[in-house]
Design a protein that fits this description.
The protein has helices spanning 12-37, 46-59, 79-92, 96-118, 129-142, 149-152, 154-157, 159-178, 182-199, 203-220, 229-247, 261-272, 279-287, 300-325, 332-359, 370-373, 375-386, 397-426, 428-447, 466-478, 486-491; strands at 70-72, 252-255. It is mostly helical.
Length: 502
């Protein structure tokens, strides 16, 4: 029993309250930031959904199949996101800040599941100090503002809606594996159907990660190998087969056919020639915690040294992670940690294969991917939480330093995240000016659809043929949606009115 990390009776309440305060503060900070700094203006992929989904809702022809429509290529159906889009149109005049706020709420639900995984996983044992500390740090990472794109672009924020079924599925799989029963198999079927429907074909990555996590836990804990795994996977396979049969009838509109996998692999190998391959693992690790220098006074050389040290420390942490994963008994905390690490690897592999192979290594720096990279840190914290009770009483200063190092790392992590949050709030004035410019250009296009000179990149409607561009903008203007809605203008006072662009 680890006597160092065990909470004394008189201090457990203080640490519990402090952990909840940190997690709640991070959640509220992101919630208020999203309300006041997220982009309400229709942009990028939202124009596609206006064409194939919202337009049908407006003319009354929207059907169930339309919630599963997707483009050719690597696009996903995302029916849950379309349900949120429908509510955004129906009740909020297509104000995309509402979408982003739904994503924030979904992230908050994910945070509660992390609490279940990390803190409440073993109700028959007292809670160690590290479990509360680890969970508080997870909250800081999940609601990180190291890049504002996670919270100011609703399409990215809504990714947390797809994370929820994934985490629920992991929870149910462990519950069934640890103590199978007829009711729990029924729960597994429901969780699988939810995962398959909401996550479309990306659910296969989740299933693979869960299967690999089961294998890793089984290596370290022989007692878990005989737990009727075949029944569990039979239920999952049957439900997924039913979902995929249903998706075979989903409409596919727009986009281009996806090239064969061999083409992506050949392109990726070409990108990695000349030694550039090291960026494939170094950059995601670095960007998960330090996408930019939070200290303006550091020069380039000093910051490069910090970057290198950060990558090396995280590589060592990953080695420790797998050393711990393959040892000792299984638990929900450990199972969730291994799953999240496999998912992070899967996401990075997908980015490399389908994006970097075509667009080069710098595509790893896309801000919308930073929230995915951060899950490797959450997995590390989860494994640290699962390691309570296994560390012997420290017998030397070096041993004490090793035990104390993660706590010091958490303090540094919280401090860095606080700095990023302050900087993000300060940048709000510039992003609002950008949204205002986008809105002005939409008003100008409503008066003259041919006036596409100087269109901002996110206004992809400017690249549409003139007939389609005129139709889409007229649809918004005539139905008083998005920037043309008086209510949306009142909710966001910086948006222009008709009189402002005469």
């Amino acid at each position: 029993m680890n006597t160092v990390n065990r909470l004394p009776q008189h201090g457990s309440g203080v640490v519990r309250v402090l952990a909840w305060l940190i997690a709640t503060a991070a959640f509220l900070n992101v919630g208020f930031f999203t309300r006041w700094a997220s982009d309400p203006v229709i942009r990028s992929d939202a124009w596609y959904f206006l064409d194939v989904f919202v337009s049908k809702a407006i003319d009354g022809t929207l059907g169930m199949a339309d919630f599963f429509v997707k483009r050719h290529g690597v696009d996903h159906a995302q029916p849950a996101n379309k349900l949120v889009l429908y509510l955004t149109w129906r009740y909020f005049h297509l104000d995309f800040v509402f979408e982003a706020l739904v994503g924030v709420l979904a992230a908050g639900a994910c945070m509660l599941l992390f609490h279940r995984f990390a803190v409440c996983a073993e109700s028959d044992r007292p809670v160690d100090l590290r479990r509360y500390v680890a969970w508080a740090a997870m909250g800081a990472l999940l609601f990180s503002m190291s890049t504002t794109m996670t919270w100011d672009w609703s399409l990215v924020t809504l990714e947390y809606v797809t994370f929820l079924p994934m985490l629920l599925f992991v929870w149910v799989v462990w519950t069934v594996w640890a103590a199978p029963s007829s009711m729990r198999y029924l729960m597994l079927a429901g969780a699988t159907l939810l995962l398959g429907v909401v996550n479309d074909d990306s659910a296969w990555i989740v299933l693979l990660a869960v299967a690999m996590a089961c294998g890793v836990i089984g290596i370290g804990d022989r007692s878990m190998r005989a737990r009727h795994v075949w029944k569990m996977f039979a239920v999952v396979a049957t439900c997924m087969l039913a979902v995929r049969v249903g998706y075979a009838f989903a409409p596919v509109i727009g986009g281009v056919d996806k090239p064969p996998l061999s083409s992506y692999l050949a392109n990726l190998l070409a990108v990695g020639r000349g030694g550039a391959w090291w960026r494939w693992f170094a950059w995601p690790l670095l960007l998960s915690i330090l996408p930019a220098s939070p200290f303006r006074w550091l020069n380039g050389a000093a910051w490069f040294v910090i970057e290198c040290m950060t990558v090396v420390l995280l590589l060592l942490a990953h080695v420790w992670f797998w050393w711990r994963a393959l040892r000792g008994n299984g638990s929900l905390t450990k199972f969730a940690a291994v799953f999240l690490m496999f998912m992070t690897y899967g996401w990075v592999a997908g980015i490399l294969l389908y994006r970097v192979s075509e667009l080069g290594n710098m595509y790893l720096y896309q801000n919308r991917y930073f929230s995915l990279y951060q899950f490797n840190l959450i997995a590390l914290l989860m494994m640290w939480a699962a390691s309570d009770g296994v560390t012997a009483k420290p017998v030397s200063r070096i041993h004490r330093a090793v035990i104390a190092a993660p706590y010091a790392g958490v303090v540094v992590l919280l401090a860095v995240q606080a700095i990023f949050a302050i900087q993000s709030w300060r940048s709000r004035v510039y992003t609002r000016a950008y949204y205002q410019q986008m809105a002005v250009q939409l008003w100008q296009l409503s008066k003259n659809p041919d006036n596409i000179d100087g269109c901002l990149p996110e206004l992809v409607v400017c690249n549409y043929p003139e007939q389609i561009r005129s139709r889409d903008i007229r649809l918004l203007h005539d139905h008083k949606l998005n920037v043309f809605s008086p209510k949306v203008q009142r909710w966001h006072h910086y948006l222009p009115r008709a009189s402002d662009v005469e």
